[in-house]
Amino acid sequence: METTLTPTPTTQESHSGIPPSLIPLAEESKLLLHSTSTPLGRTSAAREEPLPVLPPDVDRPTFNAAIQELREGLGEEWVVLNTEELDDGWYMEHPNTHDAHHVFPPWDLVSSGVCYPSSTADVQLIVRWANKYLIPIHPISLGRNFGYGGAAPRVRGSLIIDLGKRMNRVLKLDGENCSALLEPGVTYFSLWETIRASGLDLWVDVPDLGGGSVLGNACDRGVGYTPYGDHWANHCGLEVVLPTGEIVRTGMGALPGKEGEDNPTWQSFQYGYGPFLDGIFSQSNYGIVTTMGVWLMPATQHTSYMLTFAEEESYPEIMSLIRPLAINKVLGNVPQLRHAIQELTITGLSRASIWDQPGSVPPEVVRKEVAKLPCGECSWVFYGTVYGPAAFRAQQLKTIKRQFFQLPGTRLFLPSDVPSTHYLHSRALVCSGQPVLRELNWLAWVPNGAHVAFSPICPTGGEHVKKLYEMCKRRCKEFGLDFFPTLCVASREAHVIVELVYDKSSPSSKHAAYTCIRTLIADAARAGYGEYRTHLVFSDQVAGTYNWNGGALMKLNERLKDALDPRGVLSPGRNGIWPRRFRDKGWEMGEGDGRECSTQGVGMKFYT
Ligand code: ADP
Fold first, then answer.
1. pLDDT score recorded for residue 515
2. How many other CB atoms are found less than 10 A from the CB of residue 81?
3. Where do the domains of the chain lie, and which CATH numbers do they carry?
4. Known catalytic membership, residue 286
5. Residue 150 C-alpha to ligand 1 middle, in angstroms?
6. Worst-scoring range by mean pLDDT, 281-290, 404-413, 499-508, 556-565?
7. Which candidate in 17, 78, 507, 546 could, as Cys together with 9 as Cys, close a disulfide (CB 3.0–4.6 Å)?
8. Environment class of residue 213 by beta-carbon count within 10 Å: exposed (0-12), middle (13-18) or buried (19+)?
9. Ligand 1 binding residues, C-beta < 6 A
10. CA of residue 225 to ligand 1 center, whole Å
11. Is 546 a catalytic residue?
């Protein structure tokens, strides 16, 4: 039977749509993932409890009265209760009711409803409303934070503030300053299209997938792959609604411009005067960012390349060779060192097509399959890009080759050396500021594929990488999971991204992924390594590992939280920061939290 799927909207049709040029790719990817899902994994989760799920300590009559009041303030149609079946949808459909890549039961981490502000004034209204009724609110920009919790709030029954739907304008695009001023709903796709339509020769630094919010990704300290890959480092100035409803502007935005205009230096100088407070609005629950300035890279010539390394055990040497090149900026961008198994997964291959036994796919099977691909037999693949005029790039490539070719068996591929469908072409686009949609294909590895990431930070020295790599490999094997390590290299550290792909319809598969990450967080912390970002069900544990001097950092975070959000309404528990009224009441899920993810929920344990 032929499958008909809902068409993917374009950027002209929806704020969260896709550029028309990418529609064929989107359709292909959607079909691929649909073909690997089973009826159990596709079915929306029917819920057997009174709906909507209520926020803690709020009874239904009070909740209903509060919702009525909010509808009067925002308009009836801009407050929608979460009473339908939960549909995980697909990447471009981005459900804003729950976490589509659920680790706990899908109906566990859910909102009571979603509201859609159209302006900063609306956001203030919502925040003041939440303070009046003690209803937790949780902002999302697009809610496509897949692998880290998606659109779900940490506290069941919170009201989602979906900023993207109606606040999605590029407020300013400045070709001379090479910057933009954005609302939360501007996606990488839409910013890229806006820039192209303007005729300006600027790049947008994009992460692996382009459907997320430029502002939301920066606030969660996401990364991309051009020289502007550190998204938070390349933001410039914020407008923020505080948890009590006041608005602040940071950096030069705090200095009023002439005759009520925005300050002309707002997107040029990050610090302004006095303490640099921007940092407290990233990975936190101290404010709702309604506007952000971002720096854009002037387009330049570039050459992407791929290096393959023969030996599995050579990764410490590879990293030791990378370090001086990265620190001296010879590498140019944020390159990736990926295990060769990912050459297989990125093609959309299913695990079952090469191995039908339980447990991790044996290395010799992976090696044999990789050998059939354009990269040939190899163990590691390094994707990099050099920038600038031809002579400059040629010199950089010469240095890079000289360095890496010290390892016997190393090979260099340029885009012209591989077929047009090869992933290197996709990397070449991402590394030159063009959003793509290729990265989803590896979810086809298992049926009903979902993913959750273990993402520690590692100094770029070989001995550190070896420790972390061996730790992750051993634990993945122990839990019967395949191990897909990627190292995203900045100058002095690498973000080690270990994506665990699991079947979200299978309790045992979920259990393996969940328990493996919990174990790895603890293992890594004991060895002195910590995560840069995590799924919201692990945030207490990760925050708890940053505990030098008796947890001094969290004590400071909590003091800030209580001062800024005295009624504890904004995203309680996000990044492990709980407001006073929630603390020590059983919400925290730190190390040793023994609950079973597939049957006991985060909320269910406390609310039934
Ligand atoms: P994206 O869809 O771009 O990946 P999300 O909208 O899912 O990003 O947001 C990622 C994270 O950042 C979430 O934890 C969310 O609560 C937070 N966040 C998103 N937008 C804002 C914002 N405007 N202000 C404060 N926090 C935000």
1. 95
2. 17
3. 302-431+456-532 (3.40.462.10), 539-606 (1.10.45.10)
4. no
5. 9
6. 499-508
7. 17
8. buried
9. 138-145, 163, 184, 212-213, 215-217, 219-220, 288-289, 571
10. 20
11. no
